[in-house]
Amino acid sequence: MNVVYFAWVRERIGLPKEKLSTNAKTVMELVEELRAREERYAVAFSDLSALRVALDQELSDFDASLNGVTEVAFFPPMTGG
Amino acid sequence: MRIQVQDAAFDLGAETERFAKAQDAAGAVVTFTGIVRNNADGTLKCMRIEHYPGMTEKALQKIADQAQERWDLTDLLIIHRHGDMVPGEMIMMVATASKHRLHAFEAAEYLMDYLKSRAPFWKKEMTADGAEWVAAKDSDEDALSRW
């Protein structure tokens, strides 16, 4: 599974993307796995209300299933326009 | 309908004229342009806009499709830049065309409200003191509830 990060999430974790093998069934389970990996992940994922998630480039939510998903993206609320 | 995501600057006048001249069924064209605003102290050196290639185009397409479904538009245009821009530089534009002005005005507002918080762009302000990500405003999210 490809996991990509944008804006300050990318800066805090220190990389724009990575390939992970995971057994996580939901976004939340993936977040828990990442948090447990290293301090920088725990910091980036400390406040989920400050984060958004996209599954295969569609906005989603943290309860969503990862079944069939190939790309997960984490980023702060968007500031377009 | 044309949607463009690009690093390069665009010519607002030329784009608006080309868009307006291409219409034959419309009686109204509305355009909106977003420019880089300086900070309160006037010390902004550069605005850096990051985006999510792939998702950006899909998200803009979805927003544009929704606008076309909702209003009687003969055409619409979205240009949104990414990369580094200085204060006063144009970040993005939307143009909408319809038979009568109300649809064009409303659709342009709708596009802007959704572009603000549903298109994957992130702004970072660079000053001599450092760089800071622009936080999303609650009012931007609230703006969606009126639609």
From TrEMBL, chain A:
* Domain of life of the organism encoding this protein: Bacteria
| Listed InterPro entries | Beta-grasp_dom_sf, Mopterin_synth/thiamin_S_b, ThiS/MoaD-like
Q: Name one Pfam family in it.
A: ThiS
- Coiled-coil intervals in this record? none
Q: NCBIfam families given for it?
A: moaD
What this protein is called in its record is: Molybdopterin synthase subunit MoaD
- Organism of origin is Cognatishimia maritima
Phylogenetic classification of the source organism: Bacteria, Pseudomonadati, Pseudomonadota, Alphaproteobacteria, Rhodobacterales
Automatic annotation (TrEMBL), chain B:
Q: Where is the signal peptide?
A: none
GO annotation, biological process: Mo-molybdopterin cofactor biosynthetic process
- Metabolic or biological pathway, per its Swiss-Prot or TrEMBL entry: Cofactor biosynthesis; molybdopterin biosynthesis
Keyword Cell division in annotation? no
**EC number assigned by the record:** 2.8.1.12
What does the UniProt keyword field contain?
Answer: Molybdenum cofactor biosynthesis
Annotated GO molecular function terms are: molybdopterin synthase activity
Its recorded reaction(s) are: 2 [molybdopterin-synthase sulfur-carrier protein]-C-terminal-Gly-aminoethanethioate + cyclic pyranopterin phosphate + H2O = molybdopterin + 2 [molybdopterin-synthase sulfur-carrier protein]-C-terminal Gly-Gly + 2 H(+)
Q: Which InterPro entries match?
A: MoaE_sf, Mopterin_biosynth_MoaE
Q: What does this protein do?
A: Converts molybdopterin precursor Z into molybdopterin. This requires the incorporation of two sulfur atoms into precursor Z to generate a dithiolene group. The sulfur is provided by MoaD.
Homology family? Belongs to the MoaE family.
Q: How does it assemble?
A: Heterotetramer of 2 MoaD subunits and 2 MoaE subunits. Also stable as homodimer. The enzyme changes between these two forms during catalysis.
The cross-references to NCBIfam families, in alphabetical order and at most eight, read: PRK10678.1
* Protein name per UniProt: Molybdopterin synthase catalytic subunit
Please spell out the taxonomic lineage of the organism that makes this protein.
Bacteria, Pseudomonadati, Pseudomonadota, Alphaproteobacteria, Rhodobacterales
